Sequence to fold (108 residues):
Amino acid sequence: MADNRFRVMYAVYGALKGGNENESQAVSVMDALQNLLERPGGESSIITINNNNLVDVDPSPGNTKHFGACVRIDGKDTYFACQEGQTINFSNWLSATAVDKTEMESAK
Fold:
């Protein structure tokens, strides 16, 4: 069952080629992030940001990538940023009411 508590408003992943401020190599990963957040199972909201799960082709080969996103969680826009290889637990921002409701529905 899809987790409808998360709605990705935008998500971007990439780097400045060689650190050059005029050479942005970034792509939208909005759909990929939404798909990851909708995976069935209890760990769907714990995501390691990397080339393997966000993109088909590295947007900036040889450069350390960064990630930024706005995810609407239980109706509230929440902002995220990290470097590639770091892990975000999106469920940390769920309201207690939403978690309790989900647990109750799971128990049915």
